[in-house]
UniProtKB/TrEMBL annotation:
MF (Gene Ontology): iron ion binding; tRNA N(6)-L-threonylcarbamoyladenine synthase activity
Pfam families membership: TsaD (PF00814)
Binding of Fe cation, residues: H116, H120, D312
Catalytic activity: L-threonylcarbamoyladenylate + adenosine(37) in tRNA = N(6)-L-threonylcarbamoyladenosine(37) in tRNA + AMP + H(+)
Record InterPro entries: ATPase_NBD, Gcp-like_dom, KAE1/TsaD, TsaD
Family label: Belongs to the KAE1 / TsaD family.
Species whose genome carries this gene: Mesorhizobium prunaredense
Name of protein: tRNA N6-adenosine threonylcarbamoyltransferase
Required co-factors: Fe(2+)
């Protein structure tokens, strides 16, 4: 039996969870508490890092106490503390990692510093018991990546965004159209009554041999269309949202199908490989349906973990800790580990084309 306390504070969710692995190798989420800061940031139309860091400071202690109480496990019986140490907003990372270090030191437990992206990458093994290798599409407010997940600590980034993350594009589109934050669900809702054929928005990167994503050109096209017909009626907003969503789905279809082909070539012995989707944008029905159809056509299993576990949470961090313990990879197991606002999952991948000196934004 392994039991790990996980802590997540890299963006605007304060989260703690206890996950156990029993002797037979079956995982169980004993508690999973996520406090969203959406209300604190809504007035600003996006996450404000300073506000996020302060909110984590205020909430984290109570959330950890509640996660331990809910799990019915004493801190003394926890095997390790796993905390997100990057990538993310550095203020929040400091709060989470320092708290984890303090608990680990006081309770004399090992500390495992976890890469947030590894948490997303391994979730499908917690929820669906997936075997390696598989392909991950991570589409959230901060990340847009395709990753070949080959083993614990063995990830290859095949594509990333050269500018905005997909969730960011949804949020910015919503803001331009006067829809509330967070933008994704509101864009989807408005799109339901819109005409997706009214605006011919660009399909970024479609047909390009470079495997990556790009969304800032699409965002600009949306702004230009909106400005050209302002003031916008509700129907105009709905039509822009529907046309934007159609462009996104089409672009994803093209990008992901390239990755599925590459997966087939690199792992020819996998008869029914899986594509896992994670991140808040995976909640979008149009996107989900598009990817499901693509997988069906390509002979891939489509795996979408429950939304609660594929948006930011601490169960995935605790689980990544268990995976590392089980694999005997101490990883970043050190009280000296310093939070990293940028921390690529795949350290071998070349820096992004078009990214600045410090790397791509998302
Ligand atoms: O994974 P997540 O909860 O948090 C991080 O970004 O880490 O993802 C949030 C993102 C936001 O940008 C939000 O607008 C987007 O996911 N999102 C959606 C939908 N629901 C959430 N985007 C499109 N359609 C949705 N239904
Ligand atoms: Zn995330």
């Amino acid at each position: 039996m392994i039991r790990v306390l996980g802590i997540e504070t890299s963006c605007d969710e304060t989260a703690a969870s206890v996950v156990a692995l029993d002797g037979g190798g079956a995982p169980k989420i004993l508690s999973d508490i996520v406090l969203s800061q959406i209300e604190e940031h809504a007035a600003f139309g996006g996450v404000v890092p300073e506000i996020a860091a302060r909110a984590h400071v205020e909430a984290l202690d109570g959330i950890i106490v509640a996660a331990l109480a809910d799990s019915g496990v004493d801190l003394a019986d926890i095997d390790a503390i796993a905390a997100t140490a990057g990538p993310g907003l550095v203020g929040g990372l400091i709060v989470g990692l320092m708290t984890a270090k303090a608990i680990a030191a006081a309770a004399n437990k090992p500390l495992i510093a976890i890469n947030h992206l590894e948490g997303h990458a391994l979730t499908a093994r917690l929820t669906d018991g997936l075997d390696f290798p598989y392909l991950l599409l991570l589409v959230s407010g901060g990340h847009t990546q395709i990753v070949a997940v080959r083993g614990v600590g063995d990830y290859q980034r095949w594509a990333t965004t050269i500018d905005d993350a997909l969730g960011e594009a949804f949020d910015k589109t919503a803001k331009m159209l006067g829809l509330p934050y967070p933008g994704g669900p509101n864009v989807e809702k408005a799109a339901a009554t819109g005409d997706a054929a009214r605006f011919a928005f660009p399909r970024p990167m479609k047909g390009s041999a470079q495997p990556d994503f790009s969304f800032s050109g699409l965002k600009t096209a949306v702004r230009q269309a909106a400005t050209a017909i302002a003031p916008l009626s509700d129907q105009d907003v709905a039509d822009i949202c529907a046309s934007f969503q159609a462009a996104v789905a089409d672009a994803l279809d093209d990008r992901v199908s390239r990755a599925l082909n590459r997966f087939r070539q690199e792992f020819p012995s996998e008869l029914k490989p899986a594509l896992v989707v994670a991140g808040g944008v995976a909640a979008n029905r149009t996107i989900k349906t598009t990817l499901e159809a693509l997988c069906e056509k390509a002979g891939f299993a489509f795996v979408a973990p429950p939304l609660k576990l594929c948006t930011d949470n601490a169960a995935m961090i605790a689980w990544a800790g268990i995976e590392r313990l089980r694999a005997g990879i101490s990883g970043e197991n050190s009280a000296d580990f310093v939070p990293r606002s940028r921390w690529p999952l795949d350290s071998i991948s070349a820096p992004m084309v078009g990214s600045g000196r410090r790397g791509a934004k998302a």
